[in-house]
Amino acid sequence: MLELRNITKKFNLTGAKEDERTALDNVSLKIEAGEFITIIGGNGSGKSTTLNIISGALKPDEGKVLLNDVDITNLSEHKRAAYFGRVFQDPMIGTASDMSVIENLEIAYIRGKPHSPFKWGFSEKDREFFKNELKRFDLGLEDRLDQKVGVMSGGQRQALTLLMATMRNHPTYKMMRRDFALFGEQDQAEAKRQFDEFFSEEKNKLDERIKTIKNSTSDTQTKKNEIKQVKDEFDAKIRAKFDLTKQILLLDEHTAALDPKTARKVLELTNKIVRENHMTTLMITHNMKDALAYGDRLIMFHLGHIILDVKGEDKNRLTVADLLKMFDDADKKAEEE
Ligand SMILES: Nc1ncnc2c1ncn2[C@@H]1O[C@H](COP(=O)(O)OP(=O)(O)OP(=O)(O)O)[C@@H](O)[C@H]1O
Ligand SMILES: [Mg+2]
């Protein structure tokens, strides 16, 4: 669903040819929906540049970025933002210091609904929900809903940023249709037509299935349950295709500035949130144990190239020693060239 096609990115700070740095050299990568990828690689190997190109913070010199087959290479970072959640290494980024925990959460919640009229304030029920979400981090945030974020520890701020980055709301079909049309670079009318076509096809199938259930010999309760199930399946199908809000999570060493115990907590909860929400996730880390322990797929960068891309059994078999040896071999090979 997310694809990098032949991406090249060079930086040149002085304009002199000898100062040119190739951050990414013809990198291609296909990421399936729901895949959790861990990314490793030495300093300056192109990891952050890759995430920045995906989020739209940087434009590639060459190549394309595609999201659900739509070319988003030239789409502004701002326009892409609804689709991505990001957490950086620095706990100061991502939350507003002068605002309270609950106010930060409100902003993230509204941001997920870019075109709905502003409606401030959470109900008691919402507060209770967020309190419980924060409790899961086990960092004492749930008792500090009304305190300013500026006085919180790095770990607490990072936990809050993660929650904000992964908070999804439940848009109506009408909102999904509008956002889908707004988002892509394809013609808006064409996008709406695509939505309508898919929607009505699925709706017809749903009506057929409901009819079959109603005409069956099952008892009323069974029928009721079955109808609910096919309706849920219909809803999931529409959302999988068109509700892309916060579907992709980009983590750039998000636990690197935290003490080991807090880092562990934040990482564990990251994993839980990613799995529960089937989020497509790219997580950069310098901790090779974590890179092996988490995720379904592991990618290693070296001097602007992907030199390892493994998943499943091949990933499970790898050890930290294997990874270190690969780094060494890649360095030696680069020196020889
Ligand atoms: N904004 C920029 N201006 C100039 N050069 C840059 C910029 N961003 C990245 N680079 C250069 O591009 C290369 C790749 O950088 P990148 O930040 O992607 O590395 P990284 O793999 O994330 O490294 P680290 O592990 O240190 O975070 C480096 O040589 C870096 O100096
Ligand atoms: Mg980096």
What do these coordinates show?
Helix 3 (101-111) packs parallel to helix 5 (154-166), helix 5 runs parallel beside helix 9 (260-276) and helix 7 packs antiparallel against helix 8. The radius of gyration is 22 Å and the shape is globular. It has three domains: 2-92 and 245-336, Rossmann fold (3-Layer(aba) Sandwich), CATH 3.40.50; 101-166, no CATH class; 173-242. Strands 6-7-8-3-9-10 form a six-stranded mixed beta sheet, sandwiched between helices. Strands 2-1-4-5 form a four-stranded antiparallel beta sheet, with helices on one face. It has twelve helices and ten strands. The chain is α/β, with parallel strands linked by helices and 337 residues long. Strand 9 (297-302) and strand 10 form a beta hairpin. It starts with a strand and ends with a helix. The protein is 47% helix and 19% strand. The structure holds adenosine-5'-triphosphate and magnesium ion. Adenosine-5'-triphosphate binds at residues 11, 13, 21, 23, 41, 43-49, 301.
Short description:
The protein has 337 residues and is an alpha/beta fold. Helix content is 47%, strand content 19%. The model is unreliable at 114-118 (pLDDT under 50).
Q: What is the CATH first-level class name of the largest domain?
A: Alpha Beta
Q: How would you sum up the global shape?
A: globular
Low-confidence stretches: 114-118
Percent of residues in helices comes to 40-55%
Strand order of the largest sheet: 6-7-8-3-9-10
Main sheet specs: 6 strands, mixed
Average residue pLDDT: 89
Helices and strands, in order, run as EEEHEEHEHHHHHHEHEHEEHH
- Give the number of helices: 12
Number of E strands:
10
Class by alpha and beta content: alpha/beta
Rg result: 22 Å
Overall structural domain count:
3
Q: CATH topology of the largest domain, what is it called?
A: Rossmann fold
| Span of the ends, CA to CA | 36 Å
Question: Which molecules are bound besides the chains?
Answer: adenosine-5'-triphosphate, magnesium ion
CATH architecture of the largest domain: 3-Layer(aba) Sandwich
